Amino acid sequence: MKTRFAIFVLLFISVSIFAQEDFQSTTKINVGDSFPEFLLTGLTGKNLSSKELKGKVVLINFWATWCGPCKREMPLMQSEVFDKIKNENFVMAAISRGEETEIVKKFVDHNKYTFPIYIDKEAKVYSLFATKFIPRNFVIGKDGKIKWATMGYVEKEFKEMVELIKKELAK
């Protein structure tokens, strides 16, 4: 029994170290960095320019319709972020990475998501932030600096991210 537990602990530590190395090696902007300039078009046809985001707290979420962890995270983006954090100084931008507009639109309509969705068909904006892996979340403070950067979906991290957004808005 002790041997199994020791093996489990070693595997857990190894996976954690591997995930952290993957995060570091595939992330282009980190906590403390300024966020890059970009322009995207949303499903509604409205553009989102990074220049418009200055002075606001911003959550940028990169996702795809085929991504399992993204599918687990998206309902929480709706219920725990978009529906609950109503503030004129907060912007949420869910950015579909590498997919056609029609595929994204069907997915969004089917799931009845109402938060702003933007299309990054060629992953050009995504490539400013990271090289691979989704979901990815970046929280940007009013000062234009990255305050939070994560890869994948972990419930505890998601809750911490929501609390950080609220803390940044209170500043």
Key traits:
171 residues, alpha/beta, Glutaredoxin, 7-stranded mixed beta sheet, 5 helices, 7 strands, globular
Describe this structure in words.
- With 171 residues, this protein is of the alpha/beta class.
- It has a single domain (29-170), classed as Glutaredoxin.
- The protein contains five helices and seven strands, in the order αβββαβαβαββα.
- It has helices at 2-26, 68-82, 101-111, 126-129, 155-170, and strands spanning 39-42, 47-49, 57-63, 90-97, 117-120, 136-140, 146-151.
- The chain has a seven-stranded mixed beta sheet with strand order 2-1-5-4-3-6-7, covered by helices on one side.
- Helix 2 (68-82) links the parallel strand 3 (57-63) and strand 4 (90-97).
- The radius of gyration is 17 Å and the shape is globular.
Roughly how much helix do the residues carry, as a percent range?
Answer: 40-55%
Order of strands across the biggest sheet? 2-1-5-4-3-6-7
- Could you tell me the strand content as a percent range? 15-25%
- SSE class: alpha/beta
CATH homologous superfamily placement: Glutaredoxin
Q: Write down the Rg.
A: 17 Å
- CATH fold-level assignment: Glutaredoxin
Topology diagram in text:
Elements: H1 2-26, E1 39-42, E2 47-49, E3 57-63, H2 68-82, E4 90-97, H3 101-111, E5 117-120, H4 126-129, E6 136-140, E7 146-151, H5 155-170
Parallel strand pairs: 3-4, 4-5
Antiparallel strand pairs: 1-2, 1-5, 3-6, 6-7
